[in-house]
Amino acid sequence: MVRRVVCIIVILAVSLLLRAWTVWAGDEDTSHWFTIVDQDTDRVLLETCHVVAAGDEFVDEENHRYRVTRVDGHTARARFIGTVDVETQALAFQAAISVKLGFLRIGLPFASTLAPQGRLVAIYHTHSDESYIPTSGSSSVTPHGDVYDVGAVISASLKNAVGLTSVHSWESHLPHDGSAYARSRRTAVSLLKKNPDAILDLHRDAAPLSAYATTVMGKPGAKVMIVLGRQNPNLKANEQFAFALKNYADKEFPGFVRGVFYGDATFNQDLSPRALLFEMGSHENSREAAERVMVNFINSIPAVLYGVTPAGRTAKGEALRRAKGEGGVAASTIVSVILLVLVGTAVFLLLNEKSFSGVIERLRRFKKVELREFMDIRKKTGPPEDET
Prior knowledge:
Helix 4 packs parallel to helix 8 (287-297), helix 7 (235-252) packs across helix 9 (300-306) and helix 10 (315-324) crosses helix 11 (326-353). Strand 3 (57-59) and strand 4 form a beta hairpin. The protein is α/β, with parallel strands linked by helices. The protein has helices at residues 2-24, 86-101, 133-136, 146-162, 180-192, 209-212, 235-252, 287-297, 300-306, 315-324, 326-353, 356-381, and strands spanning 34-38, 44-48, 57-59, 64-72, 75-83, 120-124, 165-168, 199-205, 213-216, 219-222, 224-229, 257-263, 275-282. It has three domains: 24-82, no CATH class; 86-323, Aminopeptidase (3-Layer(aba) Sandwich); 325-381, no CATH class. The protein has twelve helices and 13 strands.
């Protein structure tokens, strides 16, 4: 009798543990969202299904940074720790990526509208069942939820807009439990063998509609949140990439990026310095709402990686134009003209003198005779009088 009671207790205990493991899913609580509030003002900063722990951080739309100090149930309290200079972070990323990928950005006003040939990005989905209730009637659809459809739209948008190839994996990583990231890790490793310039894990959050709702051209849209794993050696590099995207998006698509959340996990971002997780709206948004924002926001990726957009403008160039007006473009044009004149002159001299030694001798003669005579004439005649 005692043995039977013990067995029943053990079975119940194991069942409860398995239930807790499934619900919390290692990094998420799919049964109820967490709310992070400012500990000084009680203002709601973030609502998300990501499990929130002390030490987690959140950078809001205005780039104010908060760190979680205490968690009571599903409510977390955070304190303000400073403001992120996303412009500096973006410039640091662009300098690093230019060296890494071998691109030289000289700021001339003839930016390409197409991504460099042979470059690609990778897309996959760790939580394969995630869906949008208004579209599917459920927040969970197997084996492929609505997030795969949004991923397909993003892949097509990159190709159609700037000619950037993307490898979009439809591999399923069900069930939605604590081992999902272990299963999706195999997919990520396989995708990285194709040498993508960035790898993106696309999700949708679980939060009230108001947390992600926005509008795009007068129609419902769903904001984007970037998620970083703070327990991985690539955090600083991932962070620079995230802020470069946010910096560009904030200028081109204000209000589309809800913020950047730092969770107590890796999210497989230890595999690449340019690995990010995107929460594309909430389960209470429609799939179409998520697609409307992502089609615009996704143009931030080729902009910060390669300096190209459908309009042929770079993120850095846009920042300069906004700061200096047309003067920045005019200055670049003058530089371009000067370079063309110098190159043209060099070619002309080489054709006429037949050799480099002849060109050098011609330049020496110009300096000793022709330039001196010109300066003597200027001294004798003086500057021209102003016309009235």
